[in-house]
Amino acid sequence: MGNEELVKENNFVSIGKGLYLSKPRTDAVSAESQVTQEPTLILIFGWMGAKLPHIFKYTKAYEEIYPGAVKILVRSEAQFFWSGKKTRQAALAPVIETLEALGYIPMKKREITHGMPIEPFVPEVPPRILVHAFSNGGCAQLATLSNIISSRLPSSQNTSLPKTPSLLILDSAPGSGGIRASQRAFSTAIRNPILRQLVNIFIVLLYAYGSIMGLIFRKKSILDVMQAVILSPKVLPWFGQWTRRVYLYSTGDNMVPWQEVEKHAKAAEEAGYVVRKEKFGKSGHVAHAREDPARYWGAVKDSWEQACKDAVE
Prior knowledge:
Elements: H1 3-9, E1 13-16, E2 19-22, H2 31-35, E3 41-48, H3 52-65, E4 70-76, H4 85-91, H5 93-101, E5 129-134, H6 135-152, H7 155-159, E6 166-171, H8 179-189, H9 193-217, H10 222-231, E7 244-250, H11 258-270, E8 275-280, H12 288-291, H13 293-312
Parallel strand pairs: 3-4, 3-5, 5-6, 6-7, 7-8
Antiparallel strand pairs: 1-2, 2-4
Helix pairs in contact: 6-10, 8-9
């Protein structure tokens, strides 16, 4: 089955390269579902090189749990990490336009320039946002979207939004991205053996360059920036100090060590966030839901219920 058929079969439409939108089915949206406490929007940021059949397993789970939510899926590819800032931001322009069209952020342009026009859908209720980011690839895409939106919104508007339910779920992330871990991650995403070797050499050179730039100019790497953004109260405009963080990780992950995830989780706790850590055992990178789906999705549902309670306290 081709990607186009697969996307359609999973109730998604393409809004740009590696970007997909799914609106709730007509029978899933009722007056009752619009006022209940399920998310109105779920943003899913896939891991680097994730194949659609694999990432759609997660969207299907969300379709079953929260059928009334709009879902936006963002894929991550290897070239993202060596692209310039403008290129990375331009790649996410369709997501911005979609959020505008759906009423989540103020409309800057009346004309949709990427993909197909999107009819406004969001009901007249406060937004309830669930974000699920996988690995460093997904977190880097999230950080990029965060920077785009924060640069577009006036600072007063970005800090004065009402307290609404929101939740940030981090699967197998974030990691510091050491040389060996990065080489393993890129090797998984690149099938061509010759290209894989060239990329491995490129990663070594890139790290050497980054180290020099860091020592001389105090310039932060893309992963350092990503980790800082995720710790910010305003990762997205609907977030705040009340937004819980859920870390799903394992001791069996050979790409992002569990110690790095726990280090970031500790920093989040010290910053005042409510943090939930679910440490799995032998599951590999972004494979924790497969090892123990009941525990994995139980943590998601329970944390969302708590997030809804936090918003009214």
